[in-house]
Write a structure and sequence with these properties.
single chain, mainly alpha, 434 Repressor (Amino-terminal Domain), 3 domains, two-stranded antiparallel sheet, 2 strands, about 60% helix, Cro/C1-type_HTH, Helix-turn-helix transcriptional regulator, Lambda_DNA-bd_dom_sf
């Protein structure tokens, strides 16, 4: 089962248990949009999830835990226990400081776009460069696309860890 019908079932049930109508949640979303969500015809954004959870006096985490529990046919408690363990592992491997370092205030930090280089090709291109070959000559010698050679030309081999 995908998340859309699972979330739809959770939202319908929670809203019904609170004796709320779609109109009662107008501060979070229009009735039309809620209808689409509750019929599994529309996905929800994180910001909208936060607004809906707030309108239902719940945490977004609660709605997500319930949704994942429905999708995976497991208890919400089991799902949350697994999530807590996953959080502990991530904290051990990554650390909250590393995650927070990606933000300045409430904005993401800028980072240079980067795609990984093929280490074998990079080594060959840098060897040709060291021999004094031009990029065009390197592309011909190695049988590589000139744009690949250009991409690798200014790169450096990663330092051994």
């Amino acid at each position: 089962m995908s998340l859309k019908p699972a979330f739809a079932a959770v939202l319908r049930s929670v809203r019904g248990a609170q004796h709320r109508t779609q109109e009662n949640l107008a501060d979070a979303a229009s009735r039309t949009y809620l209808g689409k969500i509750e019929n599994g015809a529309s996905s929800i954004t994180l910001d909208k999830l936060d607004e809906l959870a707030d309108a239902l006096n719940l945490s977004p985490l609660t709605l997500l835990a319930l949704t994942l529990s429905v999708r995976d046919s497991e208890s919400p408690q089991d799902r949350l226990e697994r999530a807590c363990e996953e959080v502990r592992l991530i904290e051990d491997r990554v650390g909250m400081q590393a995650i927070q370092a990606q933000l300045v205030g409430d904005k993401l930090t800028k980072r240079r776009p980067n795609r990984p280089a093929d280490l074998e090709k990079l080594t060959l291109v840098l060897a040709c460069k060291a021999e004094g070959l031009t990029q065009a000559a390197t592309a011909r010698k190695l049988g590589l696309n000139p744009s690949t050679v250009q991409f690798l030309w200014t790169r450096a081999l990663p330092s051994p860890e």
